[in-house]
Amino acid sequence: MGISRREFLRSCGRTTVTLMAVEGALVLRDWPLGPVAEASARTLLVTDWKELADIALETARRLGASYADIRIIRSRRETIAVGPGGGGGFSMGPALEEERRDRRPVRVTRSESFGFGVRVLYNGTWGFSASPLVTPDEIRRIATEAVAIARANAAINTARVRLAPVKAYRDTWQTPMAKNPFEVNLQEKVALLTRVEELGRKVRGVARVNASLAFVHEHKRFASTEGSYIEQHIYHTLPNLTVTALRREASARPEIATRNAFIPPQSIGYEYVEQLKWAEIVEQIAHEAVEMLSAREVEPGRYTLLIAPSNLYLTIHETIGHSTELDRVLGYEANFAGTSFLTLDKLGKYRVGSRIVNFVADRTTPGGLATVGYDDDGVPAQRWHLIREGVLVGYQTTRELAHAIRETFSRGCSHADSWSSIPIPRMPNVWLEPGKERLSPEDLIADTKAGILIEGRGSYSIDQQRLNFQFGGNAFWEIKNGKKVGMLRNVIYQSYTPEFWSSCDAICSQEYWVNQGTPGDGKGEPQQTNSVSHGCAMARFHNITVLNSGSV
Amino acid sequence: MASKRLTRRAVLGVGGPQDRGPSPGAAPSRGLSDFLLDREQVRRLTEMLLSLSPSKETVVLLRRTYATHLRAAFNAVTTSGSTYTTSVTVGLVLGNRLGVATADDVSEAALRQVVREAEENARSEWFGMPLGEERDPLPGPQEYLPIRAFFESTARATPEARADALRRVLAVAQAKNLVAAAFMTTSAGIVAVANSAGLFAYHASTDAQISMTFRTRDGSGSGWAATSARDFEELDVEKAARIAAEKAIRSVNPRELPPGDYTVILEPDAFADMGPNVTALLTGRRGGGGGIFGPDLSLLPAERVEVGKPITNPLYTLRSDPTHPKLLGMPFTLAGGGFGFGGGGLGGGAALLQAGRPTRKITWIEKGIVRNLLLSPAQARRSGGEPTPAPTSLIIEGGEGTLEDLIRKTDRALLVTRFWYIRALNPILGTSTGLTRDGLFLVENGEIKYPVKNFRFNESWRTVVENTEAMTAPYKRVRDALYPAVRTRAFTFSSGSDAIE
After folding, report:
1. Considering only A42-46, A86-90, A264-268, which range has the smallest mean pLDDT?
2. How would you classify the pairing of strands B317-320 and B362-366?
3. Is A9 near chain B, with CB under 8 Å?
4. Contact criterion met (CB below 8 Å) for B178 and B216
5. Of the candidates B50, B259, B390, B435, which lies 20 to 30 Å from A393 by C-alpha distance?
């Protein structure tokens, strides 16, 4: 498959195209909206962003705001997918699916979004407004609107926001990486995925392989009336690989099984893609997908579970990550995401898990999807304990929330998912610390008389206080007398957060710790997404309720 | 089923802010008036985009939205803001390949660039999408149902007016010594489709929505309510607040009942979220979200669904009516058929070329019997039938009376206010899991007797529909459809939950 010169230019020459477009704007007449209509959104190309930022801050201050900040954000995304395409994205009849099927063997999409949002405090009340038109006039107008909103709400408000102090920072930060994924030739990416897809399809019984790469780049410029001017380039690399196996038998319904490799998404460059052992990964999951076709139905009951990082990360996210968000604890999210069972009276006392269970919140470790230089309040990234030796010892905070637990500084958890979103408290990376004694997954299996090993994510659901949860998985093995003795299907486990973590009696050691994560953490109204990592090593849990998802 | 009495006004499209605002070219962009382009401004923009295209098959979609939000928690305002968004999508065909590109502003430079990118994508093996051999021609000029969904009261609602609506909600909570959290949104937007076969469609609409959760001060009770209106002046926030307050107070000290099968009354939001998969019903599929598999991997037996034959519980009638005053839905689709609830989604793919087809009033299922099937233009051509419009603005009906009437006629059932965190369990069986939340009550002998601790359910939407034994008249818009409350037998609650607030 060749690459045209045009595609080559497209993959490296976008900025040039944009600049040409700005020049073009100067010569055209008879514009449908009139000569002034709308200035180009590309003003930034010819203006110092700090000057634009100052317009927002000065406008807000002049109108009486006690605090203001502005985020000017350009984000871009590239996805390359190989393997049979899906339908048009809707659930339709098979015939319609077929009509809409995207038949391209290789599908590339690129998108870009650019705009700014201004947030202000007026008399202790927030106001926000956002626009994609990054021009001085529009910034003035939007800052004015943000103050007008804050002022109207302040008139009815009964509580006043208090911000924990923060220093002024003038800094730039970039995701540590060796190779910018947006500078890697498209042909190279396509060739890699094509090779992986072909390798997977060679395995007997495999019907389809889908391999994709997604890359995200967020260029975020933040300025606030505290005196900070912070510019950050944040990169995410998100590989995905699934294999579907199919067995047709003349009389019965065809059997189908899909295995996902769950390659951890990371905040990292293209070097990560190059270092992955694609051939090993695809061959392993292809064989497992075929084996899944013959997996036995699980018998409902109480089981010992060995949970691999590719499944445990989401359990951590739902049970510990969300329950230690201080805004939830205080009731900010009561109308949608819910509150938390980890109420303030439990801080420093309440046992969430066994003594070997330690959770760390962290926005500093390279690779974590929530790792940044500064949050959206302009607070530097930090690392702190949430759960130590099984006991609740900390919460996730922002400048607005810190005082609620009598802390004098923010933990730096403020985040807005785009220029058009107002920053809200969001989850940092939340790690499960590895076990202190050297312990491998093989050791743990050998040490287990009877149980189920769970890999990969499946269905997941948890109540609004983060207690009753029910999670599925992608692949399951029965363990008997210290050995994997065959695959199971339709396993879902249901438990209660403190009961579950209190039953944890073994966690594998550092060497087996995997930085799993998700780019799909949802919260807030209007809902925003967040990317977080939940590194962990395989852990063991006792006496957990298991159901069969095919016969509930 | 198109109405024969379409007026010229309907043909031109109705609603929208076209009768005010400065004439194009008069003043720089200042605020909402200029932002929500009127019909003629949009027509000129789309004509220019079409003229820039090197293809004779070009479609242009333009959408602009002004959205505001206002949140409260613990009886105080928390965050609030507004957002202006624009999207201009151009799809064009070159050499039997579709290229699509999107811009986020309507400056001349952006529009020239978006056409150029669409052209480059159409010429690219990787960025362009190959089209089938016998694709449908672009739809030409169409007639649309007259739907006036734009209300100045909503578009022009000031920050003070929005704050006052929230203040009235908080006042209800405070009067009952409850703790309120709430979320209110307003939006005003325009959307337009134009293509090189002469189709031009323009629609303006507004919406206002509010939801709220009231909790008791000790965290032992929680109640939820939500309402919406296209016209901000009709948004009855006090009524919703009274419902939330009553549920919160009544839900204190819930009793624990054992997991098991119960008859349940699902209020409209619970029913909508649990969701009968209407598209699956209409296309005869038995699964939930099976669309990920092509025919080569299809698990679904080729069950024939035929017009005139029963398909579901005879209590159910399902029809589309975009003109229904409680819906005021879209007069046209944005992709060939934004099938599924909500409808009108921006499809990628070849369906984009069919954007701008009119929506219609149509009955899909009448008392459980299929009256019309989903037929795309290509399917219709093959089968010799008439293509059907997209199933947008759905109304689920079959019962009469109010929720109170339904409760009065019930011997024993659990009344479910809403569900939370619903996720598919088994797509083949259509089963899902989730939890009750913010108001679960035992109804006995026609009365609400006492609150019940929350449950997790594991159940399929098919069972919900098949076991339905009674329903109210449809009364609540949830997203893009109008729902009743339904009473259904043998709904499976699998475990309990201590979560209240």
Report:
1. A86-90
2. antiparallel
3. no
4. yes
5. B435
Q: Residue A36 carries which side chain, given as an amino acid letter?
A: V
**Among the partner residues B162, B297, B431, nearest to A246 by beta-carbon distance:** B297
CA torsion angle for B291, B292, B298, B299 (degrees, to 10)? -80
Q: Which residue do the tokens 């926000």 mark?
A: A128
Distance from CA of A40 to the nearest CA of B (A): 6
Half-sphere exposure of residue B349: CA atoms within 13 angstroms, side-chain side: 25
Pairing mode, strands B486-496 and B455-460: antiparallel
Q: Pick from B216, B295, B286, B298: which is nearest to B249 by CA?
A: B216
d(CA B322, CA B2): 12
Beta carbons within 8 Å of B264's beta carbon, 6+ residues apart: B413, B414, B415, B416, B487, B488, B491
Side-chain half-sphere of A335: how many Cα atoms within 13 Å?
A: 27
**How far apart, in Å, are the Cα atoms of A125 and each of A65, A122, A162, A168, A402?**
9, 5, 10, 22, 17
| Distance separating alpha carbons of residues B69 and B28, to the nearest angstrom | 26
Q: What is the mean pLDDT of chain B?
A: 85
Question: Can you read off the two tokens belonging to residue B424?
Answer: 């598919």
Amino acid, res. A248: R
Instruction: Tell whether the model's pLDDT for residue A205 goes beyond 60.
Output: yes
**Strand, helix or coil for residue A59:** helix
Q: Quote the CA–CA distance of B461 and B476 in Å, as a whole number.
A: 19
Higher pLDDT, A168 or A10: A168
Interchain CB contact of A100 with B (< 8 Å): yes
pLDDT tens per residue across span A459-513:
999 999 999 999 999 999 999 999 999 999 999 999 999 999 999 999 999 999 9
CA distance B35 to A131: 11
Torsion angle of the four alpha carbons B152, B153, B157, B161, in this order, in degrees rounded to the nearest 10: 170
- How do A301-307 and A450-455 pair as beta strands? parallel
Chain A residues lying within 8 Å of B301, measured CB to CB: 253
Contact B338 A90 (CB under 8 A): yes
Whether A10 has its CB under 8 Å from any CB of chain B: the answer is yes
Note the pLDDT tens digit of each residue in B23-66. Answer: 333 333 456 878 899 999 999 999 999 999 999 999 999 999 99
Sign of CA pseudo-dihedral A296, A298, A304, A309: positive
Residue type, B81: G
Pairing of strands A429-432, A468-471: unpaired
- Quote the ipTM score: 0.91
pLDDT mean over B375-385: 73
Length of chain A: 552
Contacts of A404 (CB under 8 A, 6+ apart): A326, A330, A344, A397
Q: Span A46-68, mean pLDDT?
A: 94
Cross-strand partners of B432? B424, B459
Query: What is B35-234's CATH number?
Result: 3.30.2290.10
Does residue B288 surpass a pLDDT of 60?
A: no
Q: For residue A43, what pLDDT band results from cuts at 50, 70 and 90?
A: low
The alpha carbon of residue A156 and the mean position of all alpha carbons in its chain are separated, in whole angstroms, by: 36
Boundaries of every domain in chain B? 35-234, 254-321+361-500
If residue B438 lies in a helix (H) or strand (E), which one and from where to where? strand B431-444
Q: Compute the distance between CA of residue B43 and CA of residue A408 in angstroms, rounded to an integer.
A: 56
Measure the CA–CA gap between A220 and A74, rounded to whole angstroms: 7
Please determine, for residue A315, whether its predicted confidence score (pLDDT) is greater than 80. yes
* Angstrom distance (rounded) from CA A114 to CA A396: 29
Across the range B129-157, mean pLDDT stands at 90
Q: Which of A529, A497, A542, A502 is nearest to A318 (CA)?
A: A497
Percent of all residues in chain A with a pLDDT value above 90, rounded to a whole number: 82
| Chain A residues with CB-CB distance to B425 below 8 A | 459, 472, 492, 549, 552
In angstroms, the first-to-last Cα distance of chain B is 47
